[in-house]
Design goal:
Layout (H helix, E strand, L loop, with lengths): L1 H36 L7 H14 L35 E5 L5 E3 L17 E7 L2 E9 L7 H50 L14 H50 L6 H28 L8 E3 L1 H11 L1 H6 L3 E5 L7 E3 L1 H18 L5 E8 L3 E8 L33 H11 L3 E6 L5 E8 L6
């Protein structure tokens, strides 16, 4: 990975430098040619610009002698200190200005104005332009120039460019090595942690700093590792809980069956009842576990139909009143009559209400009360089941919907409960597109609230 990243950096650097070198070479060559063609090698390039500017402003060459070093007709000894003259490198040379046809406009005294001259006979001929048109030539005679000046200059520029490119490439490669190491260090740490995680060490975490993509990847890895660790701990705890829950009824059945087999108990109906009760408990436990497994896998099927939720809640709560009366517990049912129909699985909704009422009945003391309240609106149905018990301890609130969780570890399930009722109730509520929450009422006691959206039943 490090070598690959380094090679990528090197390739990018090489392509960039090659592109810059070609562009710089072409641009430099064009500038040098323009400089030489306008008399830069002999120091009259600024004077050429002055003449072109003069013609553009005046529209003709009339009065151009004022631009030359001496007023009027006189011998020109080069580009000296005339008006508009900015260069003095052509001293010792003779300057002649001719029009586009080669007729003299201004020059030495031995050349009359209007005389036709041979442009090619002069050592240096510099065309003058106004826009795209040639308006004349500046002829330079008796000037000494460096042989192959343009080629030599370009060669030296090429050598300088190559040296600069080599130095830049070296620095860029060193920087690429450093950047590759810095970029790959967190990737290497993440790879090592992932390797240990795959070997079963779920406690692996990586240090995260910054807000870039690698930091996001590190945070995601840590969250995944934490989720896997929690899932493993939950699975181990649930396996132990299931083993415990299965062991108790099986032990009771085995003891009674052995007693019947040994003749300790006579084979009568009353001696078979404990065995049947424990068998029913095992069946409920298996069914509850199956329901949770289907819900976790997203394969729990709901048979949704138009359901009178208000009537269902009232009927289900009414069935608990005889059992509650035996403990002196009063069940208060507050259900409106004009509640809208809900597209839902009636059997599953009844199972939710059953589980909530069974839980409330277990935690309500003698002579207490349970309140069942249903509120309806055009968007949702809200069911509240509240008891007058001691409430849920603060440390237990985050865990009340966990499987087999009991706030009071010493309390046995003498009523035959499986410890999965609240977990199933929440899963079924979520399967209907709703939610189930737990809390403590301000006036005391635990309160479970379920909210179901109207018109969003699932099939």
């Amino acid at each position: 990975m490090r070598l690959r990243l380094f090679l990528i950096f090197a390739l990018v650097i090489a392509i960039t430098l090659a592109g810059v070198a070609v562009f710089a070479r072409q641009t430099t060559a064009n500038e040098v040619r323009m400089f030489v063609n306008r008399g830069g090698a002999i120091g009259v390039d600024d004077f050429v610009t002055t003449l072109e500017t003069y013609y553009a402003e005046q529209g003709s060459w009339q009065g151009v002698e004022d631009v030359f070093p001496h007023q009027g007709q006189g011998r020109s000894n080069g580009a000296g200190q005339g008006r508009g003259q900015g260069s003095g490198q052509g001293i010792g040379s003779e300057l002649v200005l001719v029009d586009a046809a080669g007729r003299v406009i201004y020059g030495p005294t031995d050349l009359e104005t209007g005389t036709q001259v041979d442009i090619d006979a002069y050592g240096t001929t510099i065309p003058l332009h106004a826009k795209a048109d040639v308006i004349g030539y500046l002829l330079v005679a008796n000037v000494t120039t460096v042989p192959n000046f343009e080629d030599n200059l370009l060669q030296r520029l090429d050598e300088a460019l190559v040296k600069a490119a080599m130095i830049a490439a070296g620095l860029a490669l060193v920087l690429a090595v450093i950047l590759a190491y810095l970029l790959l260090r967190p990737v290497r740490q993440l790879t090592q942690a992932a390797t240990r995680l795959s070997e079963g060490d779920l406690s692996q975490r990586v240090a995260v700093s910054g807000r870039d993509e690698l930091a996001t990847l590190g945070k995601t890895f840590n969250q995944m590792a934490a989720s896997l660790e929690d899932a493993q701990a939950t699975r181990q705890a649930m396996t132990a809980d299931i083993a415990h829950e299965l062991r108790t009824p099986l032990a009771v059945q085995q003891a009674h069956l052995e007693a019947l087999q040994d003749g300790v108990y006579s084979l009568e109906l009353e001696n078979l009842e404990p065995i049947i009760d424990q068998n029913h408990l095992l069946a409920r436990l298996v069914n509850d576990l199956r329901t949770l497994a289907l819900a976790d896998a997203g394969e729990l099927t709901l048979e949704c139909v138009e359901t009178d939720v208000a009537g269902l809640v009232a009927r289900t709560a009414g069935r608990f009143q005889p059992q509650a009366a035996q403990k002196g517990i009063q069940v208060e049912i507050d259900v409106p009559e004009n509640c809208p129909q809900l597209e839902a699985d009636a059997a599953r909704l009844q199972q939710i209400v059953n589980n909530l009422l069974q839980n409330a009945l277990q935690h309500t003391p003698q002579d207490g009360h349970i309140t069942v309240n249903l509120r309806c609106s055009g968007e949702s149905l809200a069911l509240s089941v509240r008891d007058s018990g001691p409430g849920i301890p603060a440390e237990a609130l985050p865990h009340v919907f966990e499987r087999f969780y009991r706030a009071d570890r010493g309390r046995s399930r003498v009523d035959g409960g499986t410890g999965l009722g609240l977990a199933i109730a929440r899963k079924l509520a979520e399967a209907h597109g709703g939610q189930l929450t737990a809390g403590n009422h301000a006036a005391g006691g635990a309160e479970f609230q379920m909210v179901l959206p109207v018109g969003r039943g699932k099939n």
